[in-house]
């Protein structure tokens, strides 16, 4: 399956790329030493995501999925943004080649981790309580979320 026109548009003209100065939450996924690395920044106001940006080291699909997640989540409540799934990201972009589906997984996970980090900073998650409000894969406790955000 080739890249869709929408995926190519998001790769070639990313509107949300870059860092937010003093973000409310940060989530990262991956390892730059062995492949794609995603870092998502969020700003929150009145329970809504008002600004989302990202830094990415990866292929065109990785860049496009970050852009798609930023577009899909901006303006949504935290709860709504936590419902963004890997499949929804892939569908939003008109599909992804099978070997690139992991990109949508990582972009959505980076967003979920940024939201979890925000909630921790607001005192809404306890250090050893499982992170259940948002399905950030491979994160079990507040301590792990905090360590992830400081990498």
Instruction: Determine the mean pLDDT.
Output: 84
Domain count, please report it.
Answer: 1
Total strand count, please? 3
The backbone outline, from C-alpha atoms, is globular
- Tell me what portion of residues adopts beta-strand conformation: 15-25%
- Percent helix, as a range, is 40-55%
The CATH level-2 architecture is identified as: Alpha-Beta Complex
| CA radius of gyration | 14 Å
The number of helices is 6
First-last Cα distance? 35 Å
Uncertain stretches of 5 or more adjacent residues: 128-133
Strand order of the largest sheet: 1-2-3
- The helix/strand class is alpha+beta
SSE map:
Layout (H helix, E strand, L loop, with lengths): L4 H8 L12 E6 L6 E9 L2 E10 L2 H14 L4 H5 L3 H7 L8 H21 L20 H8 L2
Antiparallel strand pairs: 1-2, 2-3
Helix pairs in contact: 1-2, 2-5, 4-5, 5-6
């Amino acid at each position: 399956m080739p890249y869709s026109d929408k995926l190519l548009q998001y790769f070639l003209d990313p509107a949300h790329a870059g860092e937010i100065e003093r973000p409310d939450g940060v989530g990262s996924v991956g390892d730059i030493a062995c492949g794609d690395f995603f870092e998502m920044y969020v700003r929150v106001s009145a329970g809504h995501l008002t600004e989302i940006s990202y830094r990415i080291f990866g292929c065109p699909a990785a860049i496009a999925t970050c852009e798609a997640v930023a577009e899909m989540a901006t303006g949504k409540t935290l709860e709504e943004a936590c419902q963004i799934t890997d499949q929804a990201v892939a569908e939003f972009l008109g599909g992804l080649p099978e070997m690139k589906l992991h990109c949508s997984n990582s972009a959505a996970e980076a967003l979920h981790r940024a939201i979890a980090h925000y909630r921790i900073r607001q005192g809404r998650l306890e250090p050893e309580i499982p992170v259940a409000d948002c399905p950030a894969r491979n994160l079990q406790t507040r301590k792990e979320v905090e360590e992830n955000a400081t990498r």
